[in-house]
Write a structure and sequence with these properties.
By secondary structure, the protein is an all-alpha fold. The chain has 13 helices and no strands. Helix 5 packs antiparallel against helix 8. The relative contact order is 0.12.
């Protein structure tokens, strides 16, 4: 067994239920080995993300929660739409750096790489290419990498309250990404275009710390909540699962309104406490709902 095959098999064992990787683990690994370029020694980040998403679906099936899968797909489409719209808004800030603030070359910060990656992912989703999931995984990886790269290089980056909601949306978008009708696939790219035009008119250049960025997050969170609630009414159980799955991104988008509701004025300690609370309780809602459903 080659080192690459052994490492792929370790990822499969980590992500998939035991009965799945015992029965089909080598078959899954063989598929990725066939697609790997010569000389590769480690699984790519996109392959790991793809295996993690497949593992989530396999765990859901093994626990009898297959009804969640349509909800995941709906939640993923909404998450990608929201992430694309936000990336378009932040790109406007990035391409208009303020002369009196340090920047990253011709851009306001390192965030430009992540935002452009999200826009590319939306285009890939629109054409339904085979690399769509890899594009979403790459955009998510670049968003996560902004913090350590900024720390190593000393270059400016977007604030954490901008990056964290994007990561939460990206995780949902990656976990449920799959086939969708043509009209649905076009929505993220269309939302990004409309948002970029609106942001070019409304947002100042090069400043993430004014009132406008927090307003953008609040508007995105409110719009996502209203759309998810409407779909829960229209699609019933499928929309209800999607709303629960989106609880964590919704909470991360609403950190400032939640901080005002609890402390009157947002502060970094307060925002941090609320973010931790959302990160812990949001993902717990789905298994809790599954447990209640099984009991009833």
């Amino acid at each position: 067994m080659s080192p690459l095959e052994r490492r792929y098999l370790a990822v499969v064992r980590l992500c998939y239920p035991a009965d799945h990787w015992l029965g089909r683990g080598r078959e899954v690994v063989g598929t990725y080995l066939d697609l790997a370029e010569p000389g590769r020694r480690w699984p790519s980040a996109a392959d790991v993300a793809d295996l993690a998403a497949g593992g989530v679906r396999a765990h859901l099936r093994s626990t009898g929660a297959a009804a969640l899968l349509p909800g995941f797909r709906l939640a993923a489409a909404l998450a990608l739409l929201t992430a694309t719209a936000l990336a378009a808004a932040w790109s406007v800030i990035e391409v208009r750096p303020l002369p009196f603030l340090p920047g990253a070359g011709p851009f306001a910060s390192l965030g430009i790489a992540a935002w452009l990656a999200w826009l590319v992912a939306a285009l890939g989703y629109a054409v339904a290419g085979p690399w769509t999931r890899f594009a979403v995984g790459g955009a998510l990886a670049l968003t996560v990498a902004v913090l350590p790269v900024a720390a190593l290089t000393g270059l400016p980056r977007p604030p954490v309250f901008v990056l964290v909601p994007q990561v939460a949306l990206g995780v949902v978008a990656l976990a449920g990404s799959g086939r969708a009708p043509a009209t649905v696939r076009l929505l993220p790219a269309a939302a990004g275009t409309v948002t970029a035009i609106a942001a070019a008119w409304q947002l100042p250049g090069g400043d993430y710390y004014g009132p406008q960025p927090t307003q953008v997050l609040a508007i995105a969170g409110t719009a996502l909540l209203l759309i998810a609630m409407a779909l829960a009414v229209v699609h019933g159980r499928r929309g209800g699962w999607a709303l629960l799955i989106l609880a964590t991104p919704l909470g991360m988008l609403s950190l400032h309104p939640l901080a005002r509701a609890t402390d009157g004025e947002p502060s970094w300690p307060n925002l941090g406490v609320i973010a931790v609370f959302v990160a812990v309780t949001g993902p717990a809602l789905v298994p809790l709902a599954l447990a209640v459903r099984r009991r009833s």
